[in-house]
């Protein structure tokens, strides 16, 4: 089963994402900030990362940079933020994100992106 | 309730709590950058959460608050009391919305909060007012009300007439093209009946049915259908689209009464050149494999966005040390994208391109590879073949609506949990209270059931004469007893709440009240982590607030008065909690003006609470205690704050209900000290069993002072009341049978002595004459329910080990 790591300090957002992803049959793990997410990598790399930007301890940018510097299989990362500014998108890409989405992401949209990034068929 | 909404509400309350606390902390130490960061993050996250639901009022206010906090974080705005006030008010509003949603939500969707739209606008504007430039946010991003928001999101999904033909099923389009080529007059018609049309006697469906058979038609809704219970069937939101083989003039004539609700276009003009259209669709089908045709709009969007993003990533020129990781992530993304489109990444040379990119430490090779691939266009080449369903659709409007694809995908997701969920990181569980209560009830029954074993042992020995078995039962009983007790203890632990649950609202309360009264007050809280049973803590909330208000209102003086009295201008209010054996002690101390016993004496006398003789006899402490008497209030004027018609007697009764007591000491000019003593838990009650008129009753041990035998000759009648002297103290006596209206005299023992249970109520002693006093036991007290609930003389009932029911007397009410 494809494994997805959802990193967000808001439990509501984690639950929201978990609900969408699990209903599509993916295995979801959660981390409440970047540091915890890095710890979760000990279980092995994930197939996809869903990363919030603003988090205590280690934010999304920091986590992605650390992740990309690791010598492990590099799964795609979706950065999810409430900021709609161009700046943040560029910063996300420069930090190692592969796509950048604005919250809230509608279930159908999120699922489509996840399917694309996990190499699953859309039909 | 929808678990997601539930989570949002729970988390939202936590956030609000934290935001309030941080704001107050910040007010004390405005220079703390870390606090401001935390505050911003909390507001930001809460706003993000609210965006998951359709609560525009909440999102609006939070958005403004977030912008303001952002400005504070950047140093563009200085943190001030005014700003804190404004933010606190905004958070109160959000809190109100959360409460409302929690109340009303039944079907998993938050209810409409649009009646608060005005407040939301006002609060949002007030917050923006505090911003340096307070830029007028464009109406689009900060829509004025819920209606325009939904209208805004709506318009995007409506097909425009221009690409009308693109949205037609293939077969219909061909048919239309053939007919147009043959010179037939075709018209496209869109009819949007007024919302109120049913009330005007219009019949949109009849209008449509009266037209000749169309070549194509579609019936849709102008907006998303609300959940069924909210659906207003008398509001018409339908939208008809048809293509007919008639002249435009005929249609104009047909709809002459509602010209503003129809849009008519003659297709011969709008129709693109059939040849061109055919060739364009051919060229698209050439470049796109057939499997891509079935891609949903979301899938196409995701593919395009992913490709575009990878391009942007690859052209970045920042060259970080971990560029390899970035390139491999892009490689993985592109490989996944190919796989998702049903292509084999290995066959496309992606791997070679990635290797080349990694070798040269640059994205160039991957970019080049990207450019040489064919990708799906962002718009579908042809819409899904829905030709046949459309024909039926007009007859069954709910079955197929204009956007079936998005509809099904947007359906609420089911939040199932699987066994392999990784819950390892969860250390705290939030459990519904009813579940704990159920556990509590079960363990209560268990404790009672276990008590049957000693009876059983006794029976085994006395009646069947099997001593061996009796002993074994007793041994087994002690094991079960130990486990049950530990279990009970463990469950009680779960029910324990720290007093901070009540205390946490004091900083805000004290701040606001002191503010209002023009007083400077320093609040000191101690022992917030002291724990007690949930019921106790909850019962404590209102009385405590009342006491704190009283201290602020009547106790502490204004800065001027304090200075005049030679005290520091800032008053001090201490609220502390600690545990002492099996009681929780809560103390509220202020260094205010104290209570003057003479003033109390005078007031009490004026209000006829005491008579003249008492007036002279009362000690100062007794006088002060008079403020607990019913109908006593010393405030000269009823203030907005504490004078709410709730006196100290109400406070004392509320405390007494959970078997607590309250003690007040005060010195004029030095301050007042209140001490509340409460049990840790009220789940288990220790009662003494007494007998009277052949029945057994329980009396809570905390009311029992002693039990004595009094010879009948020592009982005198003074002022028509039975009285006796116990250790030099005059104790009034009552017979329980008289109290309960049982028509039998109390039974004395062989020495003509009567059993007397001395109970203490407040500071008064009273003897209750009973037939006999028996052992004390622990029971689980169940309040009387149903029509017995009005019997105040009993505090409840309990099941005994032998299966009988014991009624527990409530001496306070009984006398």
TrEMBL record, chain A:
The modification 4-aspartylphosphate is found at residue 52. It comes from the Bacteria. SMART domains: REC. GO terms for biological process: phosphorelay signal transduction system. InterPro entries: Bact_response_regulator, CheY-like_superfamily, Sig_transdc_resp-reg_receiver. Residues 3-118 form the Response regulatory domain. Pfam families: Response_reg (PF00072). PROSITE patterns: RESPONSE_REGULATORY (PS50110). Keywords: Phosphoprotein. SUPFAM superfamilies: CheY-like. Signal peptide: none annotated. PANTHER family: CHEMOTAXIS TWO-COMPONENT RESPONSE REGULATOR, STRESS RESPONSE REGULATOR PROTEIN 1. This is Response regulator. It comes from Allochromatium palmeri.
TrEMBL record, chain B:
Coiled coil: none annotated. Residues 467-682 form the Histidine kinase domain. The keyword Transferase applies. It is an enzyme of class 2 (transferase). GO terms for cellular component: cytoplasm. Residues 684-815 form the CheW-like domain. Residues 134-166, 273-295 are annotated as: Disordered. Involved in the transmission of sensory signals from the chemoreceptors to the flagellar motors. CheA is autophosphorylated; it can transfer its phosphate group to either CheB or CheY. This is Chemotaxis protein CheA. It comes from Allochromatium palmeri.
């Amino acid at each position: 089963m494809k494994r997805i790591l959802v990193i967000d300090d808001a439990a509501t957002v984690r639950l929201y994402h978990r609900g969408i992803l699990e209903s599509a049959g993916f295995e979801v793990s959660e981390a409440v900030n970047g540091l915890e997410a890095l710890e979760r990598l000990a279980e092995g790399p994930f197939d996809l990362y869903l990363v919030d930007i603003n988090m205590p301890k280690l934010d999304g940018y920091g986590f992605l940079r650390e992740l990309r510097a690791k010598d492990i299989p590099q799964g795609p990362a979706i950065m999810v933020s409430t900021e709609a500014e161009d700046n943040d998108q560029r910063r996300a890409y420069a930090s190692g994100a592969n796509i950048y989405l604005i919250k809230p992401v509608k279930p159908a949209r999120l699922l489509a992106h996840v399917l694309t990034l996990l190499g699953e068929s859309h039909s | 309730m929808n678990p997601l909404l539930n989570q949002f509400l729970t988390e939202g309350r936590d956030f609000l709590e934290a935001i309030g606390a941080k704001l107050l902390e910040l007010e004390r130490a405005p220079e703390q950058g870390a606090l401001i960061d935390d505050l911003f993050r909390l507001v930001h996250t809460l706003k993000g959460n609210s965006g998951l639901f359709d609560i525009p009022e909440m999102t609006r206010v939070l958005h403004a608050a977030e912008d303001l906090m952002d400005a504070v974080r950047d140093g563009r705005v200085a943190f001030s009391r005014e700003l804190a006030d404004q933010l606190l008010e905004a958070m109160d509003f959000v809190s109100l919305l959360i409460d409302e949603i929690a109340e009303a939500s039944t079907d998993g969707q938050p209810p409409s909060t649009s009646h608060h739209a005005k407040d939301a606008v006002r609060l949002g504007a007030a917050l923006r007012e505090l911003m340096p430039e307070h830029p007028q946010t464009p109406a689009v991003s900060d829509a004025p009300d819920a209606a325009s928001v939904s209208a805004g999101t709506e318009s995007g999904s409506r097909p425009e007439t221009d690409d009308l033909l693109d949205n037609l099923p293939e077969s219909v389009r061909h048919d239309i093209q053939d007919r147009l080529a043959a010179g037939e007059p075709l018209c496209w018609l869109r009819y949007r009946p007024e919302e109120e049309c049913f009330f005007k006697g219009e019949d949109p469906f009849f209008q449509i049915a009266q037209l000749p058979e169309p070549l194509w038609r579609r019936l849709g809704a102008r907006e998303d259908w609300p959940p069924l219970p909210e659906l207003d069937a008398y509001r018409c939101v339908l939208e008809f689209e048809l293509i007919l083989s008639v002249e435009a003039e005929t249609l104009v004539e047909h709809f002459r009464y509602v010209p503003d609700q129809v849009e008519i276009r003659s297709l011969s003009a709008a129709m693109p050149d059939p040849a061109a259209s055919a060739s364009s669709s051919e060229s698209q089908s050439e470049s796109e494999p057939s499997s891509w045709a079935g891609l949903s709009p979301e899938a196409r969007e995701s593919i395009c966005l992913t490709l575009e993003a990878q391009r942007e990533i690859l052209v970045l020129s920042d060259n970080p040390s971990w560029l390899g990781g970035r390139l491999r992530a892009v490689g993985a993304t592109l490989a996944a994208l190919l796989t998702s489109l049903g292509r084999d990444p290995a066959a496309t040379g992606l791997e070679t391109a990635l290797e080349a990119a990694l070798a040269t430490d640059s994205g160039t090779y991957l970019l080049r590879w990207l450019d040489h691939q064919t990708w799906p266009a962002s718009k579908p080449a042809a819409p899904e073949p829905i030709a046949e369903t459309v024909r039926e659709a007009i007859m069954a409007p709910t079955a197929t609506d204009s956007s079936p694809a998005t509809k099904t995908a947007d359906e609420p997701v089911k939040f199932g949990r699987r066994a392999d969920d990784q819950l390892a990181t969860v250390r705290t569980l939030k459990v519904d209270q009813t579940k704990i209560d159920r556990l509590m009830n079960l363990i209560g029954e268990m404790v009672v059931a276990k008590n049957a074993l000693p009876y059983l042992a006794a029976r085994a020995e006395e009646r069947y004469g099997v001593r061996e078995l009796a002993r074994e039962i007793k041994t087994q009983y002690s094991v079960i007893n130990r486990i049950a007790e530990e279990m009970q203890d463990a469950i009680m632990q779960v029910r324990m709440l720290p007093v901070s649950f009540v205390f946490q609202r004091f900083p805000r309360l004290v701040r606001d009240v002191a503010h209002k009264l023009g007083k400077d007050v320093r609040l000191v809280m101690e022992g917030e982590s002291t724990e007690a049973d949930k019921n106790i803590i909850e019962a404590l909330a209102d009385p405590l607030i009342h006491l704190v208000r009283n201290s602020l209102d009547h106790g502490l003086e204004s800065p001027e008065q304090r200075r005049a009295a030679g005290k520091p201008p800032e008053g001090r209010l201490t609220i502390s909690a600690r545990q002492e054996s099996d009681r929780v002690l809560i103390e509220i101390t202020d260094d205010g003006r104290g209570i003057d016993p003479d003033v109390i004496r005078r007031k009490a006398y004026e209000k006829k609470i005491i008579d003249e003789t008492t007036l002279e006899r009362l000690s100062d402490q007794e006088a002060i205690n008079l403020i607990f008497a019913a109908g006593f209030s010393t405030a000269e004027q009823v203030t907005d704050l504490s004078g709410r018609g709730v006196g100290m007697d109400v406070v004392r009764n509320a405390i007494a209900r959970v078997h607590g007591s309250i003690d007040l000491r005060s010195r004029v000019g030095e301050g007042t000290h209140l001490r509340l003593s409460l049990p840790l838990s009220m789940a288990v009650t220790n009662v003494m069993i007494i007998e009277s008129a052949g029945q057994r009753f329980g009396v809570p041990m905390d009311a029992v002072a002693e039990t004595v035998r009094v010879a009948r000759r020592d009982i005198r009648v003074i002022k028509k009341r039975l009285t006796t002297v116990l250790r030099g103290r005059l104790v009034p006596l009552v017979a329980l049978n008289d109290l309960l209206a049982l028509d039998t005299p109390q039974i004395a023992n062989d020495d003509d002595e009567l059993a007397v249970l001395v109970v203490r109520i407040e500071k008064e002693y009273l003897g209750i004459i009973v037939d006999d006093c028996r052992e004390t036991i622990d029971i689980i007290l169940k309040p009387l329910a149903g029509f017995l609930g009005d019997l105040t003389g009993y505090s409840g009932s309990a099941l005994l080990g032998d299966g009988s029911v014991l009624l527990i007397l409530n001496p306070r009410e009984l006398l």
